[in-house]
Amino acid sequence: MTSDSSCPSATTSGSNLTIRGTVTYNADGTYSTNATIGGSVTVYLPPSCLTTNGVTVTCDQLNQEFASNPTAGITFTCSGSSGCTCVETIAAQASSATGTYTTTSAGVVTTTGADGSTSQSDYCVKGTTMTQSPHAGSTMMGTSESGTITLTKS
What we know:
By secondary structure, the protein is mainly beta. The chain is built from 1 helix and 12 strands.
């Protein structure tokens, strides 16, 4: 389940999601990441998001659907009577990516080598610490992103 452009009134909170690992920005414009991601993400689907072509889905039906199509390391639990609050729990999983990056006056722009997707983040470097935050208007799966990542040079 995702909150995306098909349901712009859905809201997502990843306040319990943690990412730990390393990011390496090389002088040649390449980067690599190795991280462990885990925790939970909460998605609220208002009633308007639960009806398609005149058919309304309940939270229990969403739970049944998620149970019948499991994803390794991820569980979904939905509850509610007027809309559904769904919690996606993610067991600690390793993640890595490589690609290219550029810096502009607007921020860091990264391009992931695997699929060519790009993302832009604002950044600030002070001494050996770099902070990155999603650029205003950035989205992931149609949902606005927020938060700060702090990187420390080792």
